[in-house]
Structures are given as structure tokens and as C-alpha cells.
Amino acid sequence: MDIIDKKDKISQIEMLAKELLNKHGFNDFEIKFKKTSHVIAQAYISTKKGYLEKYVYISLSYINNSKQFWIDVLLHEIAHLMVYREYGYNIARINYIPSHGYIFQNYAKMLGTPLINVNIVKFKHLYPDFNIINLKRFYYLYKCCNFEFKAYRKLKYIQVCKTCKKQITVLKIENKT
Q1: What is the torsional sign of CA 143, 144, 149, 150?
Q2: What is the pTM of this model?
Q3: Cβ-contact 53, 47 below 8 angstroms
Q4: Backbone phi and psi for residue 152, each to the nearest 5 degrees, phi listed first
Q5: Strand, coil or helix: what is 99?
Q6: For residue 23, which of 81, 67, 62, 68 has the smallest C-alpha distance?
Q7: In 10 A of CB 89, how many CB atoms?
Q8: I need a labelling partner for 112 at 20 to 30 A (CA). Which of 3, 17, 74, 89 fits?
Q9: What whole-number distance in Å separates Cα of residue 129 and Cα of residue 125?
Q10: What is the Cα gyration radius of the chain?
Q11: What is the pLDDT along the chain (177 residues), one digit of tens a residue?
């Protein structure tokens, strides 16, 4: 991807994010892009610096994905913000409202995002053309039914594909140089 395409894609994602945030009443949030591959996007609210910071961080590693992918990811983050708006940031922390608990899930379902309790297998079935700009050197290559996918962490448990009901297998560990 050349620089012009990358800037154009970033600008499209930023416009989409602002449009969705404004639609749901979060027009005071800034959009920031980060070089990271471990988080796709993150809603961020903090008072650490003595004033209220409100951002939605978006990873540059995933910008090549489809518009529908970004709509679903941004609606997922907006569901987190809706929980904080209703329960308050400090109350959510003190009473420990789980970040992906039933309250969040209700908001996510209301917004229509399929990204609720998603593991890498379900994720690849939702977005078969999912694309990541690889920033890390090692990754695991997994296979289930007709899908092959990369992950940067070894799966902790023996996973079974929900589509074909077979065990997910590690094909190989690759080293990207």
C-alpha cells in the first residue's frame, strides 16, 4: 500500500468514526491512530492529567480491512462508551462492571455489531478477508474447515471450530523477517 492510499484509508476511517460517534452522542471524542497490532480499536476515557481526555484509538495495523469491518469495530467501541455514559466511568470501575459483560452485550446487540465475545476463530468466519499489516516477527498459522488464519499468540486451550466442529490445528510457526 503506498502512502497516498494509506492516507486516504485513514481519512475514510476517521470520517466513518466521527459520523458514528456523532450519531450516538459522542461528538466530543477525538480520533487517534496508533502503531499497534494487539488492539484493533479502543475507547479511552481518562482524568489522569487533571482534565478529561476522550479518545477512540484506532490501530494502523488493520486499516486495510473493509468498511463493514470498521463499522462493526466502531459500534463495539461505542457500546463500551454507552456503558460508561449510563453507569459513569468511576462507578463502572468501582463496582467492576465487566468490560464485555451482559450490560455491554445488551448495548452491542442494540447497536447491531456482531463483535460480542469474539475469539479469533469466530472472527475469521465473520471476516474471511480480514487483513493485518504484520508488525511482529513470529506468528502461528492455524487451520479449521476452509479457513487458515494467523495469530500472534498460541491458543491457550484446544479450540473447536463452531462451524465444522473439528479441532483447530496449528499448521506451523512462521518467522517473518
Answers
A1: negative
A2: 0.71
A3: yes
A4: -90, -10
A5: coil
A6: 81
A7: 15
A8: 89
A9: 9
A10: 18
A11: 556 688 899 999 999 999 999 999 999 999 999 887 778 888 888 777 777 888 899 988 888 888 999 999 999 999 989 988 888 765 555 556 777 888 888 999 999 988 876 666 666 677 777 766 544 455 677 777 777 766 666 666 667 777 777 777 776 665 554
CB-side neighbour CA atoms (13 Å) of 30: 9
Asked if residue 142 lies in contact with residue 149, where contact means CB atoms within 8 angstroms, the answer is: yes
Distances in whole angstroms, Cα of residue 6 to Cα of each of 60, 81, 91, 102, 118: 9, 28, 39, 37, 27
Domain ranges of the chain: 3-111, 120-175
Nearest CA to 111 out of 152, 150, 79 is that of 79
Neighbour tally for 142: CB within 10 Å: 22
Instruction: Give CATH for domain 3-111.
Output: 3.30.2010.10
DSSP symbol at 38: S
Q: What are phi and psi of 90, to 5 degrees?
A: -70, -40
With a CB cutoff of 8 Å and minimum separation 6, the contacts of 103 are 83, 87, 97
DSSP single-letter state for residue 160: B
- The C-alpha atoms of residue 8 and residue 6 are separated, in whole angstroms, by 5
Q: State the cell numbers at 73.
A: 469495530
Residue 49: CB partners within 8 Å, gap ≥ 6? Answer: none
